[in-house]
Write a structure and sequence with these properties.
By secondary structure, the chain is α/β, with parallel strands linked by helices. The protein has one domain: Rossmann fold, CATH 3.40.50. The chain has 12 helices and 9 strands. Helix 5 packs across helix 8.
């Protein structure tokens, strides 16, 4: 069974689109009317009012899509079942790191899009505070997250924009809770992150250390300054290839 066939059990509740991040993605798509969403999951960031085609390899995730969501095709990023230039734009949100052949997936996105290719991803060189407690995440990020230079190598010239994450982000991706550390102690929320699923019990010592530091006040002495910020850079980037 594929990882997202397991995570899909409660994914649509845990991973809802944050409107502020969604606004950045919509702006990057420009005036594109036909959009293919690669690795679409439950479709939380798909633009409203446009002709969207979703591509998702997991049957469980497709089954969780809303009844009024865009039609979904079960396929992989590395073999998109569309002709060259079929869409005005292509998008992919926090999914590239799961592809078996990332280079081919990017080339496929570029092939089927007449215009922009828009990708929300994470820079593996960035080290959010959570990695101080869970260094296993560093190794996992470096293993599965392409470095920023990788995108230009396979898409051609790209722009890379820093995506600041709001302190009250409603999307429960891995580093979203930078100002809400107690959330990481709640298994219900960890279930929304593929990284927690992948590393499993290996993270237990780090989570205990975080729990102890929150109780003792050590975490607040180290990172309490973050409470003064409404947004924070935890490494997420919007990569855009125009054409």
């Amino acid at each position: 069974m594929a990882l997202y066939d397991i995570i899909g059990v409660d994914y649509e509740r845990l991973r809802r689109a944050d409107p502020r991040i969604m606004k950045l993605i919509y702006a990057a798509l420009g005036d594109a009317q036909s959009v293919v969403n690669v690795g679409a999951g439950t479709g939380s960031y798909e633009p409203i009012g446009r002709q969207v085609t979703a591509v998702e390899p997991s049957a469980e995730m497709i089954a969780k899509r809303a009844l009024d969501a865009a039609p979904a095709v079960q396929a992989r990023a590395e073999a998109l079942p569309f002709a060259d230039g079929s869409f005005d734009a292509a998008m992919a949100v926090l999914t590239v790191h799961h592809w078996s052949d990332k280079a081919e997936g990017l080339r496929e996105m570029r092939r089927v899009s007449r215009g922009a290719v828009v990708i929300l991803t994470h820079d593996p060189a960035h080290r959010p505070w959570l990695t101080d407690y869970l260094p296993e995440l560093v190794a996992l990020d470096e293993k599965q997250m392409p470095p920023m230079a990788f995108y230009e190598e396979h898409l051609g010239p790209v722009s890379i924009e820093q995506v600041l994450v709001p302190h009250d982000c409603v999307d429960g991706f891995l580093y979203a809770f930078w100002r809400r550390p107690e959330v990481y102690l709640d298994a219900r929320y960890r279930n929304g992150s593929s990284s927690f699923w992948a590393l499993g019990d290996a993270l237990a010592p780090g989570l205990r250390a975080l729990e102890n530091d929150l109780a003792s006040g050590i975490w607040h002495r180290r990172y309490g300054h973050l409470s003064a910020s409404d947004t924070h850079d935890v490494g997420y980037r919007l990569v855009v290839s125009k054409s």
